[in-house]
Amino acid sequence: MRSLFYLMVFNGGLVFSQQPADTTLLPSVCYYDEPVNDHLREELRPVRDYVYYLTCQELMPVISATAQIDSLNATIYYLYNSWDLQWIIMKWGSYPADRMTEFFFRENDMILCRERTLVPEEGISDVRSYFRNGKLLHQAINFDCGAPFADDHLATEQERIQQLYLSLISIQPEPNE
To answer: Model's pTM, two decimal places?
Structure first.
């Protein structure tokens, strides 16, 4: 079922025209991605600044879809600004959703993929993958004392994230004009 929604941000709270069924993992609202170390700190500042700007927007058209991802039910929200795709929010897993993946775009280029997973008795795992021109530059993981810098790891992660992104784009509903 295709439908058009609007996402509004008021004082740090999300308001959907229809409330999501669960509130365990919420989309990033006025989210500023704090660096975890000095690796690429200045080079990634424009990404952090743009994601903060994007997540603080007051009104964005939202189109939702449902799909099976890795044999789990997923609800996907495609958020637009002037009909350009800016943000994809995917909630999936068991009820209530125990995984959320967010893709952020600037000028049709993926700049950040944020993946959060509920980990029993540990909290929420937060993996942030930073891209430039389709290449994964850096990954920050909150449960890791360092960060994965190995080129083979980044290449594997880049391929995994891009495959997920391509599967979401393939089912993307067109915005109503």
So the answer is: 0.79
